[in-house]
Amino acid sequence: MTTLDCARDWEDGVYHIKERLAPRVISISKVCWEDGVYHIKERLAPRISSIGKGLLYEMLRSAKSKDSKSAWKVLIMDKLTVKIMSYACKMADITEEGVSLVEDIYKRRQPLPSMDAIYFIQPTKENVVMFLSDMAGKSPLYRKAFVFFSSPIAKESVNHIKRDSSVLSRIGALREMNLEFFAIDSQGFITDNERALEELYGDEEGSRKGDLCLNVMANRIATVFASLREFPLVRYRAAKSLDPTTMTTFRDLIPTKLAAGVWNFLTKYKSTLPHFPQTETCELLIVDRSVDQISPIIHEWTYDAMCHDLLNMDGNKYVHEVPGKAGGPPEKKDVLLEDHDPIWLELRHAHIADASERLHEKMTNFVSKNKAAQMHQGSRDSGQLSTRDLQKMVQALPQYSEQIEKLSLHVDIAGKLNRIIRESSLKEIGQLEQDLVFGDAGTKDLINFLRVHQDVTRESKLRLLMIYAAVHPEKFESDKLSKLLELARLPQDDMNAVYNMRLLEGSTDNKKSSLGTFSLKFDVHKKKHAARKDRTDQAATWQLSRFYPMIEELVEKLSKGELPKNDYPCMNDPSPTFHGTSQSASVQANQVPTPHSMRSRRTATWARPRNSDDGYSSDSVLRHASSDFRKMGQRIFVFIVGGATRSELRACHKLSTKLKREVVLGSSSIDDPPQFITKLKLLTADELSLDDLEI
C-alpha cells in the first residue's frame, strides 16, 4: 500500500506531498474491549475474507488525530467503493469507528466545516475533480480530508492535487489501499464483472467493451495480490491452435489476454509497492467457462448450493417466517446465511441428506439435555419438534434464545428444501443429470424421461437439455433438436440458452474456419459420451454426490506439477527458488526470509472457541473445519472468467484440506443456475473471427 501523506513542509511557496514507505498491512483477527476502548489484535497474512475489514479499520483509524476537534467523521464513497465496503463490513462496524454520516461523492452534500471527512474512492479523474471541488477555496465542505484510493492513482492526478495549495493544507492522508475485490468467502472473491459473459462472449466480441472488461478485471485481480502481499506464478488456459488454418477468436484468447493484463499490473506493483515480494510466493491459474460448462447448470446437492438454487435468496439473505406473537399471523424476518452462524459454517458444504440428519441430531441432543425443552416437547409421539415448538422454547428458555433461533432457522430451511426435492421430482432429475454426465444415460433415456415426467418444471427440462448438449453436441446437427424441443415443449428463448453454450466452448485442434457446427466436448479422447470420469479415489457416501467440478481435477494436477504446460503455459518463468508442487517444498520455500509468502500465523476468526455445553454448539466441528493454515504450503489461486459456482467454491475448501495448501477461488461473479441461464439467454449465437488480433 503506497502512502502519500501530506507533509507540512513549505518549499518554493507551496506545500509538497512527501512520499514515505507504507506501513505493514494489518488484518483483524480479534477486536476486543480493554480499558474502555477497542483494541486490534494483529496477525500477518490474512485470509481473503478478513482483508477488507482489516483495511477498513486501518483506513478509519488512521483518520483519528490528536488535534481533531470532532470525534465523528463523514465517509464519502463512489458507487464501486460503497459495494466494496458493504461486502467487507456492516454499517454498525463503520459507526463504531466514529463515522456518523455516509455520503455519495456525486450527490450534493451539506457543508460540515467542523468535521473531518474520509474519502474512499476510485482514482478516476472525475473523482479527483470532485474531491478538489469539495476541499478547495475559502469555504471547504470539511475541516480536513483523509483520502484513500481503491487502486493506484496516476501521477498526473497526484500532480493535479499538488497544484492546489489550498487543498494541500487540508489533506490528512493520501493513500492507495489496493482494494477493488469483493470477498464472498474465507477462500473466495469476485471482481464484480456481472456482465462479463455478455461483454466477452456476446455478439460484439473483440470490441472495445471486451478489452475494457478484461482490463478492469485484471486490475481488480491484481489488487488481491497487492493486499495479500503475494506474487504469483501466472498460468492460463491457452488457445488450442494458433496456426493460419485455424479460426482464432477473441473468446479463444480471453484467458491469455487476462493473464497478460494481470501480469502487467503485478510487474508495476513489483517495482513500486513497498514490501511486495520479488519472486513467486504462490500460483495463479486463469481459466474460463470453456473448461466446464456443466457445473453452472447441474443440480448441486449440498446445503449451500441448494439454498441459493431453490429458495430465491437475495444474495445471502433468506426470508425466515416465524410464528407471530400471541398467536398472531406469521412474521417475516430477514437473516443472513454467513460465517457468523456456526451451524451454517458446519453444514454449508454437507450433502442435503447429511445436513438434515445432523440437524435432527442437534435438535434431539438439545431436547435430551434440557428438562424445560422436554416439557415443551410434551407427549409428542413422533419425538419431532416443529418450528413453532422451537419458538415457544425461546420464550421459556431465554438463556438459549440465540441457539434455538438458529436451530429453528436451519430446521425450517432444510424442511423447505426437502419438500421442494420431493414435490419437484428432483431426485429423478438429478439422477438423470449425473447419468448423462458420466455416460450412463443417452438420448433414449432423456426422451423416455420427458415423456413420462411431463409435469417437470420448465427450468428442469432446460437444464437437462443443456447438459445433454454439453455431452452430445452431434445430436443437434440434424432434426434431433426440433424433436427434443417439441417433446420438452420449451419456448424458443429457452432454447437460445442451449444454442449459446457454443459461445463458451474452447477451441480444439480440429476447429477449422470452415466449420459451421459447434462442439462442446470436454475430452476428445473419451470413447463414450461422457463429460466426467468417476474418481477412483473417492467413494460416494450419499446419493447424487458423484459429480465434481473440473477445477477440482485441474487444481490437483497443478499442485502435483502434472498440468500440461502446452495447454496451460506460464506467463512468467518461475524463479529457481520457487517450489509450488508439494507441501514440503512449499513450506521449505516459506522459510526463506526474503522473499516470502506471508501465510503463516493466521487462524480464521470464526474458529475461535465458544464455550457451550447445551448440546447445540457447532464449535467442535469448526475447530477442525478451519484447517491449520500455519502448516500449509503456498497458496493456489484459480480464477474463472464468466462466473463461478457454489460447487467450485466447495471444491476449493475440500482441496485445501486434501492438498495442505490454501486454495482460493476467484471469478468475475458467483452465479447460481438460474442467474447463469439468464445470462446465457442474453448472448447471441453468431461466431465472429478476428484474424489480426494482437495480445
From TrEMBL:
Membrane-traversing stretches: none
InterPro entries, sorted: Sec-1-like_dom1, Sec-1-like_dom3a, Sec1-like, Sec1-like_dom2, Sec1-like_sf
Region (Disordered): 578-619
Signal peptide: none
Compositional bias ranges of the Polar residues kind: 578-594
Pfam families per the UniProt record, alphabetical: Sec1
Highest taxon of the lineage: Eukaryota
Family annotation (PANTHER family): VESICLE PROTEIN SORTING-ASSOCIATED
Protein family (similarity comment): Belongs to the STXBP/unc-18/SEC1 family.
Protein name listed in UniProt: SNARE-interacting protein KEULE
